Amino acid sequence: MTGKDLSVLQPYCENDMRRLKKISRSIFMRFNEPMPEADHGEFYSIANMTLWQAYNAYNPDMGVSFDGFLCSCLQKKFKTELTRRHRQKRILNQFAVSLDATGGDDECGNLLDFIPSDFDTFEEAMKRQDREQFHDRVQRYISKLSNQQVNILNLLMDGYSPAEIRRMLEISSKEYADNMQTMRSYENVKILF
Questions:
Q1: pLDDT digit string, tens, across residues 33-76
Q2: Cβ-based burial of 92 (10 A; exposed 0-12, middle 13-18, buried ≥19)
Q3: Do residues 27 and 54 make contact, with C-beta atoms less than 8 angstroms apart?
Q4: What contacts 10, CB < 8 A, 6 or more positions away?
Q5: Which residues is 102 bridged to in the sheet?
């Protein structure tokens, strides 16, 4: 050790780090966005590390009290941590894509059209119902759809691709995706089961 006085740390470490937590909480309250209670523990850990780093870096000749120096260090560390978290969210959000999202008018459809799956809603419903009961449920399902959605459903059943359907019905990729989302929604499909 360099002969620094450890007693400067004592007020921060007493009573389960009450003073350090109080300072940290006052800094949280000044942020533009409220910090969830669940994150306080992580930030108290950062505060503990920062307390020790500030103690090692502090020089009384700086012309500022240790309290002021520590507050400044804590603010910088907390802001850095929040910036890092926001950056991670932005990076992750860049890669987030809805399965119903289309790639534009020149695209063939949405991601769901390209993901191979052997799950077929109608086939699964057929397994669970006798034919007559299933027929009634299909009729109720179709009755909940708009005319355009029924047209899309008929063309899909006839084997047309999403691009061909959009061209035939003269609708945009977004309009097609919105209709498909409605047709696949739980509220509509639950009738079949």
A1: 666 777 777 888 888 888 888 888 888 887 888 888 888 888 88
A2: exposed
A3: no
A4: none
A5: 110
